[in-house]
Amino acid sequence: MKFIVCIFLLSLVSCKINQKRNGVEVGRWKYVSGTKPERLVVVGKYDRKGKEKGVWKYYRNDTLFRSERYFYPYSVDVLFHKNGKVSEVGKSFTSQKTWTKTGTWYYYNEHEKLTDSITFEN
User: Fold this and answer.
1) Residue 88 burial (CB < 10 Å; 0-12/13-18/19+)?
2) Phi and psi at residue 2, in whole multiples of 5°?
3) Which residue, 122, 108, 119, 51, is CA-closest to 79?
4) Distance of alpha carbon 51 from alpha carbon 42, whole angstroms
5) What is the DSSP letter of 113?
6) CA distances from 56 to 10, 37, 42, 69 (A)
7) How far is the C-alpha of 101 from the C-alpha of 83, rounded, in Å?
8) What predicted TM-score, i.e. pTM, was given to this entire model?
9) How confident is the model at residue 15, as a pLDDT?
């Protein structure tokens, strides 16, 4: 039984990231840029056609500042204040590496109190 658990854990740890197939990003990806004090890390997945899928998370200095859940070509976006509270929530449209806000976006202060809402028309 311990052997099976070890094999399972080893398979999880050995998952490859940042892979390309036929020149297209596929599977799990992790982008890292900059150094402390301004280090940016982006973690997410691409489908077999190179389109974002699932949840993408953006970290600045190990603090989550943005999360996107993809329903391609749309995504639901949540942005966070430095204190970890929600600052913006809305839907966006993604097309060939361009990102556009669409629909109603909600804006919150540092105490997560709704301060504004704006509707974007495309």
Assistant:
1) middle
2) -60, -35
3) 108
4) 15
5) -
6) 24, 22, 7, 6
7) 24
8) 0.80
9) 66
Q: How far apart are CA 87 and CA 79, in angstroms?
A: 5
- Using CA atoms of 11, 44, 51, 36 in order, give the dihedral in degrees to the nearest 10: -130
Q: Is 89 exposed, middle or buried (0-12, 13-18, 19+ CB in 10 A)?
A: middle
What pLDDT shows up at residue 101?
94
CA-based diameter of the chain, in Å? 57
**Rounded Cα–Cα distance for residues 61 and 59 (Å):** 6
Answer whether 115's CB lies under 8 Å from 107's CB: yes
User: C-alpha 13: how far from its chain's center?
Assistant: 21
**How many whole angstroms separate alpha carbon 50 and alpha carbon 26?**
6
Which amino acid is it at 72?
Answer: Y
